[in-house]
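Q: Predict the assembly, please.
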Amino acid sequence: MLEARLEQANLLKKVVDSITNLVQDCNFDCNDSGIALQAMDNSHVALVAMMLRSDAFSPFRCDRNIALGINLTSLTKVLRCAQNEDILTLKAEDAPDVVNLVFESAESDRLSEYDIKLMDIDQEHLGIPDTEYAASITMPSAEFQRITRDLLALSESVSIECTKEGVKFSCQGDIGSGSVTLRSHTNVDNEDRNVSIDLSEPVSLMFSLKYLSNFCKASGLSSRVKLSLSNEVPLLVEYALPSNSFLRFYLAPKIGD
Amino acid sequence: VKTQQMLGKFFGAP
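A: Predicted assembly structure:
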């Protein structure tokens, strides 16, 4: 059986909020290492990969592999019943029909309990190769969100060019064009504001801004985001979560025929 | 003209 207790319901609320625009139904794969999720969007252009390691929970107990097939709209409805600061416990039997969620207030004696009916989801799993990326950029997640939002006002697509000069996000649209260039930067007062660019060879790729702006819904989960790029392969956008856990998004590029 | 690729082209079966 599964029993997983999170100190703050807020973490799961934010994770689900940030993927619900991309994915409708998905399996939460539980085993002794934690709770993992991998799902593609309907058009098979973007992929979400989440890992909540067992260390992020206290306690965490799961003695065998359990797949919880959950409709994210249903999960969102139930998670709205939790206060952000509530303690959240997920429970399921070994071959479950439902997942049980318990919300406890640390301050009062309130205890809420909900069951969500599970679905049989035949999910296509993709093998993601270990990649040595040619460029990786770590920057404030709010900055990446702002750039994405600003350029989306002008265009559907963004070109991301990374050279030793810096990283340039640029777009061309009907009303004109725009670009934002970032250079490596160390902020002495606040390292959350740092921009670090790690480059082994120049990269230039084009991506859909609609998907990138969807990924940026995860900005509330982490003050930092890491973009990893290599020519002609999918972009990796990664938000670090507590206890070495992560929320990753992959986006296939636009490539000339 | 650049065309949106699908992930299956890059990521195979596990």
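The longest strand of chain A covers residues 46-53. Chain A touches chain B at residues 40, 43-47, 125-129, 157, 206, 208, 233-234, 250, 252-257 (CB under 8 Å).
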